[in-house]
Design a protein that fits this description.
Layout (H helix, E strand, L loop, with lengths): L4 H28 L3 H8 L3 H8 L7 H11 L3 H5 L2 H12 L32
Length: 126
């Protein structure tokens, strides 16, 4: 074991804890019918900043987890409970869905002529 391995393992644990909190905040928001725009003033940030945090592009702060819990009417322990995330990960594994293909699994949206539907900012390639 090298001196750097405990640091790497520690960072992986931190990343996993943050992933659990993000997952549960999104899950409870869905259950409560609340949006990122609703959460933005609670955290004192823009809706875009909420999206960045919930999608893992920027770090969640512990105070944001506490504020989200209070706003959602749950405890911080509820937001740190990994049971629902683990259950979803196991289900994705059984369905052979990974992070890369879980959105594209199944039927790809197509236009009326059978061609793949393009996103708003996509253009067909020549």
């Amino acid at each position: 074991m090298t001196a750097i391995e405990p640091i790497i393992e520690s960072q992986q644990n931190i990343d996993r804890i943050e992933e659990i909190a993000r997952y549960n905040i999104r899950r409870f928001m869905t259950i409560a019918g609340k949006s990122q725009s609703d959460l933005a003033p609670i955290w004192g940030v823009t809706r875009g900043a909420v999206s960045q945090r919930l999608n893992g592009y920027s770090q969640l702060k512990f105070t944001e987890v506490v504020l989200a819990a209070k706003w959602l009417g749950v405890t911080v322990d509820d937001l740190m409970d990994d049971s629902a995330l683990i259950q979803d990960e196991e289900l994705r594994s059984k369905m052979h869905l990974t992070g890369e293909n879980k959105k594209t699994a199944g039927i790809t949206p197509t236009a009326s002529d059978g061609l793949p539907r393009l996103g708003l900012n996509q253009r067909h390639s020549d």
